[in-house]
Design a protein that fits this description.
By secondary structure, the chain is α/β, with parallel strands linked by helices. The protein has 13 helices and 12 strands.
Length: 363
């Protein structure tokens, strides 16, 4: 099946991109409202403690949206992960959802990599489906992995960079014994995914990029809040001022309607100071350092984007992926923003299953 460089939707005709006005919030909104005056920061610090990873895991599993994941259970595997000669974690954490009993036995597994700040639980709907649609597990084994410095992952691989997180993901899939697999990533996780594909070209059968980072941002695309994350020395203390109100305000521009429990999920993740610190590190590392390598990508790539993404407008960033990756297909979903797998999971699942089926190469 020949790849298409023309933006399409599974249920709509090809469309032409039109420039949009920049939204008022992007990733930097996670630190919007931080007060850096010494007195205010000292007041915020008093009595403030980071949410521990065990408590974070327990509270995430209690959320209604994560009931299917809780029923399947998480897997912890004692596996020392070494980066640059240093053991950064002594175990890996992932969600394994085996394919349905009546699914074909020759499909390749898919590895899902979440964004920042986020957690493997962001993939719940995509994995398990909903009342009127089947999830990815209906056709193949699914592994949603937790990246160091995120969610409930133990250990500390800091300072965090995109390459370090991609290499961590590579060590995880090796530990899982996956010789050949598809990989999909959202937002910053999309960059972890495509770097993993470049690092492990013989293992990755295809890549799905959901509103992914990877290119150097244009000067006009950086907002003041993002500049705070990248430049202000006190940005790493922002977890002390975390609140549900700030999280909801930050998420609002990225959704038509925020899915149930997602505000609470993001809030809980950002209550852990290590997760917050990894976000700040990665925001400062978002500089397009390997963007030229994308022209050497061997894996077929589905560039799957929300038409209303204010973080990475599709007419700029999705189109660049489609133009640069040799075997790329671009699909744009109307009526969704930066998280299409959460707003339109059924459409994303259909697009992914079609793409995978056309490129299955079990071996």
């Amino acid at each position: 099946m020949a790849p298409s460089k023309t933006p399409t939707s599974p249920s709509e005709p090809p469309r032409t991109f039109t420039p949009r006005a920049h939204g008022s919030a992007r990733r930097g909104a996670w630190v919007a409202g931080l007060v850096f005056a010494g007195g205010a920061l000292a007041a915020a610090t008093a009595g403030c403690s980071s949410l521990s990873k065990p408590e974070l895991e327990a509270r995430l599993l209690e959320l209604g949206k994560n009931a299917p994941a809780a029923a399947v259970g998480l897997t912890r595997k004692a596996t020392p992960v070494t980066l640059d000669g240093e053991v950064v974690a002594d175990e890996i954490v992932y969600l394994y959802a085996p394919r349905a009993a009546d699914a074909p036995d020759d499909t390749l597994p898919v590895v899902l990599i979440h964004g920042t700040p986020s957690t493997l639980f962001a993939w719940t709907d995509l994995i398990f489906g909903g009342a009127d649609f089947e999830g990815l597990r209906a056709e193949r084994d699914v592994y949603a992995i937790e990246i160091a410095g995120h969610g409930i992952a133990p250990g500390d691989a800091g300072p965090y960079t995109f390459e370090r997180c991609a290499r961590f993901a590579g060590e995880v899939v090796k530990s899982l014994g996956l010789e050949r697999f598809h990989v999909a990533g959202s937002s910053y996780g999309g960059e972890f995914a495509w770097r993993l594909a470049l690092n492990e070209p013989d293992r990755v059968a295809s890549v799905v990029l959901l509103d992914a980072s990877g290119y150097a941002r244009r000067d006009e695309d950086w907002l003041s809040e993002e500049e705070v994350m990248r430049e202000n020395s006190l940005a790493g203390l922002g977890w002390m001022l975390n609140s549900r109100e700030r999280i909801e305000s930050a998420l609002a521009p990225h959704f038509r309607e925020i899915p149930p429990d997602r505000v609470e999920e993001f809030f809980l993740v950002c209550e852990n100071k290590h997760n917050w610190g990894a976000m700040i590190d990665l925001a400062r590392d978002e500089n397009g350092t390997r963007q030229d390598d994308l022209r050497g990508m061997r894996a077929p790539t589905l560039v799957l984007w929300g038409a209303d993404d204010v973080a990475y407008p599709p007419e700029v960033y999705a189109q660049r992926f489609a133009d640069d990756v040799p075997d790329a297909e671009l699909v744009v979903l109307e009526g969704t923003g930066h998280y299409p797998h959460e707003e339109r999971p059924a459409d994303v699942i259909r697009a992914m299953n079609r793409f995978f089926a056309a490129r299955e190469d079990p071996r």
